[in-house]
Design brief:
By secondary structure, this protein is α/β, with parallel strands linked by helices. The chain has one domain. Helices cover 34% and strands 18% of the residues. It contains four helices and four strands, in the order ββαααβαβ. Strands 2-3-1-4 form a four-stranded parallel β-sheet, covered by helices on one side. The longest helix is centred in the middle third of the chain and has 16 residues. The protein starts with a strand and ends in a 10-residue tail after the last strand.
Length: 126
Amino acid sequence: MTDVTIVSFGYLHGAPPPAHITLDLRHHFRDPHVSPELRYMTAADELVQQAVLGTPGVTDLVAAVADAVAAFAYGPRAGPVTVADGCAGGRHRAPVFAQALADQLTAAGHTVAVQHRDLHRPVVNR
């Protein structure tokens, strides 16, 4: 049974999905979309992963959210926890963050499912 579900999404494609914890990564973390060489890549590409995870504060936030998930999961009304993390288009920051969080939670013993709501969508011209 999955005890944590992580959903990455893009705010430009609709409202955030329902979640216990919702993170907005748009304003505080480097957007690979602004780099022409990264714009049409996705979180599946190593260069995008390096750009996102190399942004100051991102790995600290992953650790902090993992701690928050543990608090939710082991609280007095323990049960499945859903985390939603969003960026502008849902192709770069959010899915990389979601996978990093999933990796950390899995290493801590959680059973994690990851969904990328908007990763498949085309690049948003902005």
